[in-house]
């Protein structure tokens, strides 16, 4: 594998300034022999460094891969309050204390907590039957997943995200409503601030390269998404099956990896009360090495998502 030397750093800085997409740079590095994880992390660092220099916004990463809702209807205008600059300050997490959290209709186990970044791993958020029901409801309706082009806000099918997905509208029937309520209780965030549940399916070799879930504030395409409900503040990924091999959720900047277990979930929070965004929440879905992987994702916004 090539090494990340000064020549590569220069190449990255030049291409970021030229406006090349993250994917094109990652692809070029992978072609040159870099491991995809190392390439993604290097590109994200270069994008962050360049946006910090050009916008004077130290600590505000300019992410590129933002999964979005495909719901098309309009919504309320989010407050245009500025994102605070400077080093991310860890304030109190909304997640309840204790080893067992009462979330609407279920007691959920806390298996692991990390403070920097704020990550919590839960067991038994959904029962095995509920996981199977979500998979069966989704199996025949899957479409290739997209990511947001940060320049335009449009969705692109690109190689960094090899999965298929489907969205359920919030509260679309009694079963979904119950899961929405439980998840809002667990995340301790208003139900109406949640996007609809998204189901994702990865086959063998499917992966989702490292990215941020929040909309990069300095990218023109983000305004399209934050105009409805404001910025994303936290994510819950629920594992709907046991993956035979691979498919961990990884946090490369934190050196953390979560191997999913059916019904369990990983929570991470990236926007604090000052509206700063936490660059340590860079995360991805590692390649599935055997079998397939099903997850369900809930993204919470700072305002009602109507
Ligand atoms: O599949 C995953 O583990 C994963 C990892 C990172 C999913 C997402 N992000 C996502 O849907 O945003
Ligand atoms: Zn993500």
Descriptive notes:
By secondary structure, this protein is of the alpha+beta class. The chain has 2 domains: 1-76; 100-301, q2cbj1_9rhob like domain (Jelly Rolls), CATH 2.60.120.620. It has 6 helices and 17 strands. It has a 9-stranded antiparallel sheet. It has a 4-stranded antiparallel sheet with strand order 9-15-12-13, with helices on one face. A two-stranded antiparallel sheet has the order 5-6. Strand 2 (106-114) and strand 3 form a beta hairpin. Helix 1 packs across helix 3. The radius of gyration is 18 Å and the shape is globular.
How is this structure best summarized?
By secondary structure, this protein is an alpha+beta fold. It has helices spanning 6-18, 22-31, 36-55, 128-138, 174-187, 222-226, and strands at residues 100-103, 106-114, 118-123, 143-144, 147-148, 155-156, 164-168, 197-202, 208-211, 232-239, 245-246, 249-251, 256-258, 265-269, 283-285, 288-290, 293-301.
Map the helices and strands.
Blueprint: H1 6-18, H2 22-31, H3 36-55, E1 100-103, E2 106-114, E3 118-123, H4 128-138, E4 143-144, E5 147-148, E6 155-156, E7 164-168, H5 174-187, E8 197-202, E9 208-211, H6 222-226, E10 232-239, E11 245-246, E12 249-251, E13 256-258, E14 265-269, E15 283-285, E16 288-290, E17 293-301
Antiparallel strand pairs: 1-2, 2-3, 3-14, 4-7, 5-6, 7-8, 8-17, 9-15, 10-14, 10-17, 11-16, 12-13, 12-15
Give the name of the CATH architecture of the largest domain: Sandwich
Summarize the helix and strand pattern as letters.
Answer: HHHEEEHEEEEHEEHEEEEEEEE
Percentage of residues in DSSP E strands = 15-25%
Which structural class fits the helix and strand makeup? alpha+beta
Strands of the widest sheet, in order across it, are 1-2-3-14-10-17-8-7-4
Mean pLDDT: 84
Question: Bound compounds, please?
Answer: pyridine-2,4-dicarboxylic acid, zinc ion
CATH fold-level name of the largest domain: Jelly Rolls
Helical content class: 10-25%
CATH homologous superfamily label of the largest domain = q2cbj1_9rhob like domain
Overall spatial form: globular
Structural Rg: 18 Å
**What ranges have pLDDT less than 50 throughout 5 or more consecutive residues?**
52-80
What can be said about the biggest beta sheet? 9 strands, antiparallel
Between the first and last Cα atoms, what is the distance in angstroms?
Answer: 47 Å
Count of DSSP-assigned helices: 6
Number of domains: 2
Query: How many strand units?
Result: 17
